[in-house]
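Progress against Task 2.4 (sequence-to-structure conversion) is shown through the following example record, which the project officer requested during the mid-term review.
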Amino acid sequence: MLETSWVYPGAASTRRAYYHSSRRDGDYEPMEPHKVSTSLRRVVKTDSLTFPRTGLPRDPYALRPRPLDTARGVLDAATEALDRRMGGTLCQNKRHRRERSRLIAPPGETA
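Structure tokens generated for the chain above:
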């Protein structure tokens, strides 16, 4: 769902992202759902700005380093937990970084 929504984000009118800047001519950054003003909350549902499970923005143009760092942290924690369950063999000698990954498609689909 995430990949599809970013590859085919749809018309600009359907992509929801709100930006703010401290100055009119300053850099604009996407608003976090918890920072949306009360007046704007009357118009937009803040849960439509991000994916609920990841917190990543629904609009691919609103993606910034912080959400990517969060996603990477979740992935690293999952890798460490899996490594513990496997007795340390997954991350031994940085194996999880050296070995190539390959996509395995579900039955009936091509990779």
